[in-house]
Amino acid sequence: MAAGLRKRSRAGSAAQPAGVCGQWLQRAWQERRLLLWEPRYTLRVASCLCLAEVGITFWVIHRVAYTEIDWKAYMAQVEGVINGTYDYTQLQGDTGPLVYPAGFVYIFMGLYYATGQGTDIHMAQNIFAVLYLVTLLLVFLIYHQTCKVPPFVFFFMCCASYRVHSIFVLRLFNDPVAMALLFLSINLFLAQRWGWGCCCFSLAVSVKMNVLLFAPGLLFLLLTQFGFRGALPKLGICAVLQVVLGLPFLLENPIGYLSRSFDLGRQFLFRWTVNWRFLPEALFLHRAFHLALLAAHLTLLLLFALCRWHRTGESILSLLKDPCKRKVPPQPLTPNHIL
């Protein structure tokens, strides 16, 4: 009987650690699910993904072949400015004329000197890798403030995205520079730093004109927050910065600078399209197709302004009034309202 009791006690003592271990594993599994699904864990997941991206990005640089598309053209264009040419109509590269605003020239002029006149591709890739990690951090900070997106989504946004790594470190496009400045401006808007945010937004526009696609939303936010008169100084920051950056080129040939760097009628080549590859080339190049896209874009902006962004019950023209004089005082803008 004593032997039987000893056996049972040994079995019970063995079962107890097994039960504790099982509970610990179950708790760990539950925490892991929370880590993947709960937005409040965004910063923890983001920290791990940023560390993983350090290894992944530098592995891509050393293992995947670099593809030359626009880098040499960028370097040739800024080299013309370095040599004293400030007439935009005279600045050319391998892929054609310079069509980006002055901020692009200054930033890529810095890259020109940092990479041995554009010849040290490996150094350029390392610089863009750091830019990618900074951009990733800015995006994670935005998502952290929304408290809506489950953290597991971020893995597919960065680590599993070949296209993102390609644009940053395998192609060395100017889009990453413009978007990094844009995401910085969004973070500043979320922190209610409207003046600095407008400054960074204007810098982003000065690198590549497509950032202007975000301008209608920014204008609506400024009118909501400050009214027409209060928004004018913020819009003035954007305008003055563009003039200051473009001043050397405006003094030389103002029409040439404005027509090249802010050319709204520029025709894109079919061979470079990605989203519209399924269309016949003749349709893609047809002017009616461009006008239809523009009309659809403006219509959607109007619908969003009337039905989605503006929900106070007043006329949308009330946004032009001072916020203190409106019938319905504006509520403080939350991060989700701004985004």
UniProtKB/TrEMBL annotation:
Biological role stated in the UniProt entry: Dol-P-Man:Man(5)GlcNAc(2)-PP-Dol alpha-1,3-mannosyltransferase that operates in the biosynthetic pathway of dolichol-linked oligosaccharides, the glycan precursors employed in protein asparagine (N)-glycosylation. The assembly of dolichol-linked oligosaccharides begins on the cytosolic side of the endoplasmic reticulum membrane and finishes in its lumen. The sequential addition of sugars to dolichol pyrophosphate produces dolichol-linked oligosaccharides containing fourteen sugars, including two GlcNAcs, nine mannoses and three glucoses.
Main localization of the protein described in the UniProt heading: endoplasmic reticulum
Metal-binding found in the keyword field: no
Membrane topology of this protein: Multi-pass membrane protein
Catalytic activity: an alpha-D-Man-(1->2)-alpha-D-Man-(1->2)-alpha-D-Man-(1->3)-[alpha-D-Man-(1->6)]-beta-D-Man-(1->4)-beta-D-GlcNAc-(1->4)-alpha-D-GlcNAc-diphospho-di-trans,poly-cis-dolichol + a di-trans,poly-cis-dolichyl beta-D-mannosyl phosphate = an alpha-D-Man-(1->2)-alpha-D-Man-(1->2)-alpha-D-Man-(1->3)-[alpha-D-Man-(1->3)-alpha-D-Man-(1->6)]-beta-D-Man-(1->4)-beta-D-GlcNAc-(1->4)-alpha-D-GlcNAc-diphospho-di-trans,poly-cis-dolichol + a di-trans,poly-cis-dolichyl phosphate + H(+)
Segments crossing the lipid bilayer: 98-115, 127-146, 201-223, 235-251, 288-307
Compartment(s) where it occurs, according to its Swiss-Prot or TrEMBL record: Endoplasmic reticulum membrane
One example GO MF annotation: dol-P-Man:Man(5)GlcNAc(2)-PP-Dol alpha-1,3-mannosyltransferase activity
Alphabetized InterPro entries for the sequence: Glycosyltransferase_ALG3
Keywords, alphabetical: Endoplasmic reticulum, Glycosyltransferase, Membrane, Transferase, Transmembrane, Transmembrane helix
EC number: 2.4.1.258
EC class name: transferase
Pathway: Protein modification; protein glycosylation
GO cellular component labels: endoplasmic reticulum membrane
Keyword Cytoplasm: no
Protein known as: Dol-P-Man:Man(5)GlcNAc(2)-PP-Dol alpha-1,3-mannosyltransferase
Pfam families per UniProt: ALG3
